[in-house]
Specification:
It is a single chain. Helices cover 23% and strands 21% of the residues. It has one domain (4-94): Alpha-Beta Plaits (2-Layer Sandwich). The protein has helices at 4-13, 64-78, and strands at residues 17-22, 30-35, 38-43, 55-59. The protein is flat.
Length: 107
């Protein structure tokens, strides 16, 4: 934790860190599944899950390379581990009919 404070200050001042939070255990979670028009709700814990997300950080970087650099520094601060980096969808990812545009309804 001694190294975490200065790192969090730096990444925030750099304008990269947008949000971060720890997630409660899967025992307090619920999964909602829609299949063949039927909603299935399953309460945790999810013992069959091999990998669970324990926390997240939302970063805004100029490139994947920059995201990797910040993530590697974070892992160094916490003493190792593994993080998954996933880009967010942006309106341009959907072509002309993005969620923000006035496209005709699909039939």
């Amino acid at each position: 934790m001694e190294k975490m404070g200065p790192f969090m200050d730096e990444i925030t001042k750099a304008g990269v860190l947008l949000s971060t939070a720890g997630l409660q255990p899967s025992a307090k979670g619920t999964r909602v599944r829609l299949s063949a028009g039927k909603v299935i709700v399953t309460d945790g814990p999810f013992a069959e899950t091999k990998e669970l997300v324990a926390s997240y950080a939302l970063l805004e970087t100029k490139s994947m390379a920059e995201a990797i650099q910040w993530t590697a520094r974070f892992l160094d601060v916490i003493g190792g581990g593994e993080c998954e980096i996933r880009p967010l969808y942006e309106p341009g990812d959907f072509g002309e009919c993005s969620p923000a545009s006035d496209c005709p309804p699909r039939s």
